Amino acid sequence: MRILSFLLAALTMLIAAPIHAERIRDLGTFDGVRPNQLTGYGIVVGLDGTGDDNFEYVTEAMRGVSGRLGLSLPPGVSPGLKNAAAVIITAELPAFAKPGQTIDVTVSTIGRADSLRGGSLVLSPLYGADGQVYAMSQGNLAVGGLGVSGRDGSQVTVNVPTVGRIADGATVERSVATGFDSQGELRFNLHNADFQTARRMREAINNRFPGSARVVDGVTLSIVMPLGADARSEMIAAIEMINVTPAETPARVIVNSRTGTVVINSAVRLAPAAISHGRLVVRIEEDPLVVQPAPFSDGVTAVEQASDIALDIEETRLAMLRGGANLSEVVDALNMLGVGAADLVVILEALKQAGALQAEMVIL
């Protein structure tokens, strides 16, 4: 209960504070200026007996690797590859990445390998969504997990030893064309759709660069760009640093049903309502008795059940909420009722059904 009260009080201080200005760069991104995901398939070798063994994918992959090196495995031979593991490689290609630059890669097992500790990734291509090769990856893995086992079958695992990372483990081979330097207009997309925020952003940009921005919809603004890379870059840098006060977010109550976490934002308002809350606790205690037969009798020992049932009815409290109550008043009323996180969810849902809670309920 103290934790819930502290959480609600903290939310009151943080969320009820006046909305302040944000930089445009924090409210969205320019269209096309985004990372691209890359994936690949590869083989990690040099493991200390923690690989996939005779996993078919590893065997076929090693045939391909040995073939590229001029060594052909005899047909029908299935080598034991306990020191190798089949892996999936993932990476993120940043915007404007150029050939020759390096990026980090993450390597994850897809078979029965126990650990990637001490392994090295064999040269592997990384593909984009269009099927083209955009980077080549290779290097020694850094694995944060540890897994050991004994001959009796006992095991100890720390973190996740089947996932590793290679810093600067891939070299970019192809850049992604964004059209950023050739389009006459660039589009700026807000992280959260809001017409009021888009309008304020348009006014702020036009005050700095008259007639350059217009609102396309609740997410997108179109901005006319000058010719020339230097002038375009200077204008974008200036736009990103303009301060804009975003519109107040819609009224929402976020409920995580798995953890019991409840978050109420400052836009939540209540119509006049009265809340009565009480709980009934039933306790059942079993205290079985052992009954012994009389001496020299034909009876047998028996167990006699004895149950003790108790009811605990907590005092019912009534809280009155006036119309238009703000977040602070809502928190005070709920604290007065002394409710826990689970009961708080029930009360909020009941207020929503009664039409007293003017907010969107989001259940995670």
From TrEMBL:
Biological processes per GO annotation: bacterial-type flagellum-dependent cell motility
A GO CC annotation given for this chain: bacterial-type flagellum basal body, distal rod, P ring
A molecular-function term among this protein's GO annotations: structural molecule activity
Source superkingdom: Bacteria
Pfam families: FlgI
Extent of the signal sequence: 1-21
UniProt record similarity statement: Belongs to the FlgI family.
Record NCBIfam families: PRK05303.1
Coiled-coil spans in chain: none
Subcellular location: Bacterial flagellum basal body
Keywords noted in UniProt: Bacterial flagellum, Cell projection, Cilium, Flagellum, Periplasm, Signal
Function text: Assembles around the rod to form the L-ring and probably protects the motor/basal body from shearing forces during rotation.
Assembly and interaction partners: The basal body constitutes a major portion of the flagellar organelle and consists of four rings (L,P,S, and M) mounted on a central rod.
Species this chain originates from: Aurantiacibacter atlanticus
KW Cell inner membrane (keyword) present: no
Protein name, entry field: Flagellar P-ring protein
